[in-house]
């Protein structure tokens, strides 16, 4: 079933707890079964509500999918922001702090199974998802997280810990060397990785990153 451009969100009607139940059921089924195989009937049954209740909150299945995907992306971006603030705002040892940030970011992703099951759905069905929805997901999710990281890399350069001339490119390299390698090894979170393997992947990536962007020795 092909996607169409997402409609404008409908005004909320009904009780907030019903909406939460619908969103939770949709997140579970879209992540487990994909977009095409998930039906409004199935979501209604999982949520314990009627189809009419779902349509009181969402115009159609596509709008519900959009709401679930964007909510998950925003939540995970906030998680990444908190992790970055904890590890990168005040540096003690640049390698250790970058490793701790990378490891905690990867662990958070592994723990966010419901969200990353949706990411797997997006990647599997991307050819049928309209570009506006893909771009909206990328903007509030991956691009927002990369923008946060780029900001910290600029600050670390200003403080003399790194030598970065293009923060956006450096943030992309950092993510490819650390988080993306964990995602690939775990099949986007489908196969849990031992902590030791996550730490090994991230540590190797950080050391490569510092060979590219580490500040020259002082004095």
- What would you give as the CATH superfamily of the largest domain? Tetracycline Repressor, domain 2
Shape summary: elongated
Q: What is the number of E strands?
A: 0
**In percent, how helical is the residue content?**
over 70%
- Give me the CATH architecture of the largest domain, please: Orthogonal Bundle
Question: What is the string of SSEs from the N terminus onward?
Answer: HHHHHHHHHHH
Mean pLDDT: 91
Q: Can you summarize the main beta sheet?
A: none
CATH class membership of the largest domain: Mainly Alpha
Q: What is the first-to-last residue Cα distance?
A: 63 Å
Beta content comes to under 5%
Domain module tally: 2
Tell me the structural class: mainly alpha
* CATH-defined topology of the largest domain: Tetracycline Repressor, domain 2
For the CA atoms, what is the radius of gyration?
20 Å
Number of helices: 11
Keywords: DNA-binding, Transcription, Transcription regulation
DNA-binding region: 39-58
GO molecular function: DNA-binding transcription factor activity; transcription cis-regulatory region binding
Pfam family, one: TetR_N
Summarize, please.
The chain is mainly α and 219 residues long. It contains eleven helices and no strands. It has helices spanning 16-37, 40-47, 51-57, 61-88, 94-111, 113-124, 131-140, 142-158, 167-177, 179-185, 195-213.
